[in-house]
Amino acid sequence: SLPFFICLFPSVLTKFVFLNFLAFPFFADFRRPELLVNNTISLHLTTEPGVTVGIWHTVPGSRAAEARGQDQRWYEEALADAHPVIIYLHGNGGTR
């Protein structure tokens, strides 16, 4: 009966394979990354009309003293300087 159930409800299988409905650590506020990770802010990029992607911008430890107490504008300017940018794609877990 399991294959029949999967054929009728394929979305259930994807939920249990990827477990993207779970957010770990539990009860964490991922909109405020500075509470979880030092030198990090949350930004949102509009990739195309109607599609917004949430991102975290984390500066390396070598710039930690410089980043302390800075606002979002400083982080945006840090993205435009000569330092390389590393993009980490976390997958489809629904959280960053």
Automatic annotation (TrEMBL):
Q: Where are the transmembrane segments?
A: 12-30
Q: What is this protein called?
A: ABD12 lipase
Known InterPro entries for this protein? AB_hydrolase_fold (IPR029058)
Cite the entry's keywords alphabetically. Answer: Membrane, Transmembrane, Transmembrane helix
Entry keyword annotation includes Membrane: yes
Please tell me the species this chain comes from: Onychorhynchus coronatus (Royal flycatcher)
Decide whether keyword Transmembrane helix is in the record: yes
